[in-house]
Amino acid sequence: MKTTGTAILALSLSSFGAMAVADESTHSFVPTQLSATSAQADANGFFEDQHVTGSTRNWYSNELRRRDDRFSYQKNGVATPTPRRINWVQGTIVNYSSGFTQGTVGFATELALYNAIALDRDRKDLAGGANRTLTENDGDAVGQWSKMGLANVKARVSNTTLTMGRQSVNTPVIAYIGNRALPSSFQGFALQSDEFNNLSLQAGSFDRVSPRSEQSLARFRSEYANSTATADRLDMFGGDYKPFDNVTTSLYASNLEDFWKQYYFGFTHEIGNSDALSLSTNLNYYKTKDAGQSKLGPIDNDTYSLSFTGTHKAHSLSIAYQEVAGDEYFDYAHETNAIFLANSLLSDFNGPNEKSLQIGYVLNMAEYGVPGLKFNIYQARGWGIDGTHYKGTAYDVKNMDGETHYEYGIGTSYAVQSGPLKATAIRATYTTHRASEFQADGNLNELRVVTTIPFNIL
Q: Cβ distance 260 to 329 under 8 Å?
């Protein structure tokens, strides 16, 4: 962490920490003890606890490139520019989960069928589709497709579960990404242990990813490298520890084979009462270093974010500072959401040596008699992007010299509170991003409307 970043961190902790009023005596130390209950001891049986649930998501996005930026699509075999891209997909998940069998060792299974229907199939609208709509090589939409998104077997002893097969994972170093009509998932095995009251441990090894908008499994690759290199395995280990009832810490490590080793530390502290004033502090730090065959070349990257959120009744105001110390992007595995940083928005604000600041506001209308309705607005700016000292070839950053960009967005969401559509969520967002010449995210306006309806079958 650079000296300037350390100074900002220290100053922010002292100044913002004084904002909240709280009774510190209520935040007591939590001694680590064995869990008082056993999940396996409470197992009711394979069929007795089985469930069939699901959800259907209507996902719409309308993007407009500004200035000289353009998408492109194939017209009569020729790449043709277009300023607009529209994706409209209906994604449906039907999930079967059994209960655990009784006994010292319990067994269970989980199966989930994913289905997608392209509601907009116009080649010009899709402009290639990318990870939004599944398309053929010529750019035509695949009208309807399905796959097994989840398919695994679980074995449990006490409060420790081993999962083998295709599964969802959510950690700072490998996490499913659910920002499309369907989420990603991973093939491999994972172990989760909750044998202690305030300590949870996780480990896993995964050899393939099931992408959001593809039917087949894929090897792991980088999110930001322009290299075609792939990795056959991602290994991880880590845990979450709660030493006080208002403090949570996380420590994780991962190895993306022949790409990099990555380490993560997270810290969350909450103080005060939102009826008067509460303050949430969140620190995220990643260390990334090339490893093995170093297929992406030299990597030596330290990235952190520090955010504060003050809440008074219906109103929440947040400020977040983020900094990248490294001559390449802060990078993570493609088709994952393993970027637990405060300023990961439409842009990730993760360019080489980039600094960024975000200010956001959320209004929770539950305080005004409309539970489930929220509004938010934010603005983020990134500056000082400098890749001129980069020595490798995997990242296209050498022309970045003092690049800047900014993003602002407004949104609203509503979750149905009762009735047959309970938990149905509707969210609409409008985002604008503007960038200097060599900042990679470009100039874009996007309207996104997403409706997710959960349902129970059994």
A: no
**Dist CA 169 CA 199 (whole Å):** 18
Distance CA 364, CA 378 (A): 15
Pairwise CA distance, residues 176 & 231, whole Å: 17
Q: Which residues of 165-185 are buried (b: 16+ CB within 10 A; e: fewer)?
A: bbbbbebbbbbbbeebbbbbb
Question: Which of the four pLDDT bands, split at 50, 70 and 90, describes residue 111?
Answer: very high
Domain regions of the chain by residue span:
3-23+46-100+122-146+241-456
Nearest to 321 by CA among 246, 275, 383: 383
Q: Is 24 helix (H, G, I), strand (E, B) or coil?
A: helix
Q: How far apart, in whole angstroms, are the C-alpha atoms of residue 278 and residue 280?
A: 7
* 318's tokens: 């947040």
> In this model, does residue 184 exceed pLDDT 60?
yes
The pTM assigned to this predicted structure is 0.94
- Per-residue DSSP letters for 78-143? EEEEESEEEEEEEEEEEEEE--PPSSSEEEEEEEEEEEEEES---HHHHTT-TTTS-B-TTS-B--
Q: What is the mean pLDDT of residues 166-171?
A: 98
pLDDT of 364-390, one tens digit each? Answer: 999 999 999 999 999 999 999 999 999
User: What topology is assigned to 3-23+46-100+122-146+241-456 in CATH?
Assistant: Porin (2.40.160)
